[in-house]
Amino acid sequence: MFLAIVSQEFGLSVQDKTYNNLANVLTNQFASGSNKNTYKDCVFIEQINGVYEISSSFASMLENEEFKYQVEEVVNFGLHRYEKTYKNHYKDSPFTLYEKNMIMKMPVVS
Question: Is the pTM of this model over 0.85?
Answer without folding.
Answer: no
